[in-house]
Amino acid sequence: xxxxxxxxxxxxxxxxxxxxxxxxxxxxxxxxxxxxxxxxxxxxxxxxxxxxxxxxxxxxxxxxxxxxxxxxxxxxxxxxxxxxxxxxxxxxxxxxxxxxxxxxxxxxxxxxxxxxxxxxxxxxxxxxxxxxxxxxxxxxxxxxxxxxxxxxxxxxxxxxxxxxxxxxxxxxxxxxxxxxxxxxxxxxxxxxxxxxxxxxxxxxxxxxxxxxxxxxxxxxxxxxxxxxxxxxxxxxxxxxxxxxxxxxxxxxxxxxxxxxxxxxxxxxxxxxxxxxxxxxxxxxxxxxxxxxxxxxxxxxxxxxxxxxxxxxxxxxxxxxxxxxxxxxxxxxxxxxxxxxxxxxxxxxxxxxxxxxxxxxxxxxxxxxxxxxxxxxxxxxxxxxxxxxxxxxxxxxxxxxxxxxxxxxxxxxxxxxxxxxxxxxxxxxxxxxxxxxxxxxxxxxxxxx
Length: 448
What we know:
Blueprint: H1 5-17, E1 28-34, E2 47-51, E3 56-59, E4 71-78, E5 81-87, E6 102-108, E7 115-120, E8 133-142, E9 145-153, E10 163-170, E11 183-184, E12 193-200, E13 203-209, E14 218-223, E15 235-237, H2 245-248, E16 259-268, E17 271-278, E18 283-289, E19 297-303, E20 305-306, E21 309-310, E22 315-321, H3 327-332, H4 336-348, H5 358-374, H6 384-390, E23 398-400, E24 403-408, E25 411-412, E26 421-422, E27 427-432
Parallel strand pairs: 3-20
Antiparallel strand pairs: 1-2, 1-22, 2-3, 4-5, 5-6, 6-7, 8-9, 9-10, 10-11, 12-13, 13-14, 14-15, 16-17, 17-18, 18-19, 20-21, 23-24, 24-27, 25-26
């Protein structure tokens, strides 16, 4: 069977993707954006990973592709772009939040090359006299409306101070340059952090943590009014999380470690997965609910890994269909060192991947040329004999525009064994020959 270009592409992708989980075909794959310190070179940088089970992740890069200071990344898909918002460090204060009232926004079509900018908060809640500390921006999309939730503190030297969590709407999705004023979410305590909203049916679920370095409980509120109003008192979740084996057996276990960085991923039906981090160690965990987020099953808790080591950092998870056209982009963005190794493996034994080698292509070209020259008629070409048969001999035609001058020289011999010699002067006449190609011949005809 011949090997086509599409087969070659599929073979390359199959070799490069090599996801962690094997077995049955996956309906979805997951892309995670976070900005922790799993690897030192990615500390306070955008870190991207891909997974088929949402727990064990493989890094897309081992060196940052977005080099801006960034933490608390939230990622979404808009058309053929990936768009992430993150805590920037506009003032370079090294605290992990901006004192200039901004958050970062970056766009990419290939998860490698990013176009980054800053979005500046505005409105009456922003202070002109003291720092506007901002961090933990989080996307929320409802229909065609795009919002970013973000934490704001105008208390100098205290990034847990008021006013609290609010939101901004983007009026030009795709351009991301026109934003509403910052509006405070009502009914929340001013020390709450890391907001996340998920809409299920007609109900909005708001997740936050109660802030501060020594508390860090995860809070869950519900509203049927809107995403930004009507929330009642919170349910406190995670009070028993420290009893889970995945946490007690990890190096992140500590009786008082706070939890934060919450993100909820729908898994279908009443199943949901809550991602969070144990703050003092920044180790990341996931736990599942099978009753619509009413309770969380300790036996399902897993510690996230990046390339087999504990994962760090506050982040978000984007689920995309396994057949999505953007998936090869994510696969091809895999970290360079592994990709190089895999390409070398393919190059060492290309036949195992049903690929042509350079020698194969050279031999194929040589064989193809021989095929054509042996039997040109099969390819719609004239043979040398056919061309010679039509040739008048020598270069006879000089074409100007659509006309050509034909010069004929009569030659004679007395006995056909003596060479022909010219007889008289050449006879020239002009003929119309429009177009690019003509075959001519001269025939003697009976005199009339």
